[in-house]
Structures are given as structure tokens and as C-alpha cells.
Amino acid sequence: MRDLLSLTQQLVDGRVSRRGFMKTAAAYGAAAATLGAGGYARAAGNGALIGFSFPSFDAFRWPHDRHYFEKRADELGLRYIIQGANEDVATQDSQVDAMLSQGIKALVIIPVNVDAGKQIVERVKREAKIPIISYNYVIPSTAVDYWAGRDNYFVGELQARQALQEAKKGNWVIVSGPEGIDVARQKTEGALRVLKPHIDSGEIRIVSHQWHDAWSPEGALKQVEDALTSHNNNIQAVISNEDGMALGALRALAEQKLAGKVWLCGEDCWPEVAREIVAGRINMSAWTDLIQMGRVAADAAFALTHGQVPPGNDSITVSGRKIPGMRIGSLGVNRTTLPDFLKRTDWLKPADIGLKQG
């Protein structure tokens, strides 16, 4: 194992070529592909060997995605190698190389960042010519054969519809993520589609809309503070693209003793936000059906390694090539639906968010 670790470090440091790494790593056996934090393999069975590269396992959701993928892969008889790259591009690159050295027949990848991911998948396609599935983020490359990602437009639509049912009309605020990221743009566009007739009629006035790099809670805090100041606390609703920013908005509302009085939502259903939903200070969050997303990725890997075309409900066009994929829907989680949500998923434990078991 020390030899394996040394070899991988030499690749990261540039002291051994990629070709030299793959040749030597192959001689070490299957363990070479499981190097790195969070890496492990299921090698039993006769199914195709699939590599799944995560950016890390530190984010709350990634262990859940891994679990849902594994469960379906086991049902299909697939073997798999799964690793997390500690949010480091070079580590992800070397881990993917190690997977290739073990003969993976398909790669599922969540890139550390999309630009670096594009380079990785294009190299993999040139060198190994295996099917590639882009997971959660849609890597804009003709090397990708299939993708599974959230229906971001639907998230915004879901939030806006719930707000229209529950919030007072009047002055509303929209808190968006980075303008340069399609996820933030699509969520915002989805919400505005639903709200447009009410905006046109004058029932709703969007008195503040800002984009925030890195999904900044501090940016959301300042935006909502400024909106409250400009309108003498006369704000009826805040729609936030994401839970971290919703928590930032909540801080601004709480400072003015408006927590629970101004309608507020986010997306991702973090434990902290679920606790605020239970407390009545946040009204809803949207949760992407990661159970389906994990299943879709495993099903696609199975199909592609058997020369089949996976089913899809959408496609993207990159350099004239249409790449099929699956847009995954989301669920609205509020105080009414939270108990059922907990029963249907293992996302949160009732005791962790202030609910009794049972």
C-alpha cells in the first residue's frame, strides 16, 4: 500500500508520466483504484466495473448520492470503484487514471469544477473510449454520453407556486446564486415564469433581485437587510435559490423580528433549514430526488456498457451533437410534508431536526 500511495503522489507531483502511472498501477492490482480519501470498491460479481468520481464526500449530500447509486448498482450486479477527490482537480484527475488502470467500462463523474471536468472526460474518451456519464452538473463536452441532473427550472417553479399559495402579495425579494452558473439562472428563470402574470398585474413587485457569487450567505444577508431598510420592513416574501442563502436572509429577518412573518424558502433541505421549518421560521425547501438520480446513473451505466441507449427526458446540444440525459424532479418540503419526507428518505433523522421519532 505504501508503494501505491507513493506512486499516486508521484503522478500528482508530476514525477511520473500518466502512461507510466497506468502501467505500474495495473501491476499492483485492484487496490490501486481505491486510493484516496473515501475511496473503496465493490469487486464481487460478474457485472461491468464502473468508476464513480466524486468531488469529495464532505458535502452533506454526497454520501447519500453514493448510497443511492450503490443500492441500484448492486441490484443490477454492477461492480464499482468510488472515490472522493477532496475538492482537488489534480487528485480527481489521478484517481480517474487509477480507475482506468483497473479496466473500468464506464465513468460516472461529478467534476470538482466543470472546466477541469471537461478536460478530464475528453482525455478519458481519447485514451479509453468508454461511456461517460456526467452527474449533477452537465459537463458541456461531446465526450459525455449521458447526464443526470436536477431540473433547475422546476425548483424555481415549485418555490414560486408555494409562495403564491402562502405568502401575502406585495413586495418580494429574489436571492439568486452566481449569475455565471446555469443552475442559479435556471432556478431564477423558473420562479419568474410562474410569477410573471402576478408581476405584470402589479400584485407582486420584485423590489430586490441580486446574484451572489459562491452562493454567499453574507451576500444574501446584506441584500435582505438593504431591502428591509429601503422599504421600511415592508417585505412579504423572499425566494432564495439555495438553503445557505436562505439562512443568510433569515438572519436579516430575525434582526428585525420578522422571522416567521416574512415568507421564506430555500433549496436542498439542509438539516439547519429543516430545523427552521420545524420552528416555523422558514416556510419550505426543495429537495431534489437523489434516490432517482442515483438510480438513473446506475441504470445508464448498465445500459451503456451493454450497448444500449438509456432512457432520457431531455437533451443538450454541444458542438452540434445531441447528448441525452435525465432531468430529475424535486419535492417541496414544509411543515406539513416533512414527516412523510423523512419516512420516504434517509436524508435526515427526526431527532436531529426537533421532531419525535415515529
From TrEMBL:
This is Monosaccharide-transporting ATPase. Belongs to the bacterial solute-binding protein 2 family. Its EC number is 3.6.3.17. PROSITE patterns: TAT. One of its GO terms (molecular function) is hydrolase activity. Keywords: Hydrolase, Signal. The keyword Hydrolase applies. GO terms for cellular component: outer membrane-bounded periplasmic space. It is an enzyme of class 3 (hydrolase). It is found in: Periplasm. Residues 50-307 form the Periplasmic binding protein domain. It holds the Pfam family Peripla_BP_4. It comes from Paraburkholderia graminis (strain ATCC 700544 / DSM 17151 / LMG 18924 / NCIMB 13744 / C4D1M). Transmembrane segments: none annotated. Its main location: periplasm. SUPFAM superfamilies: Periplasmic binding protein-like I. The keyword Methyltransferase does not apply. It comes from the Bacteria.
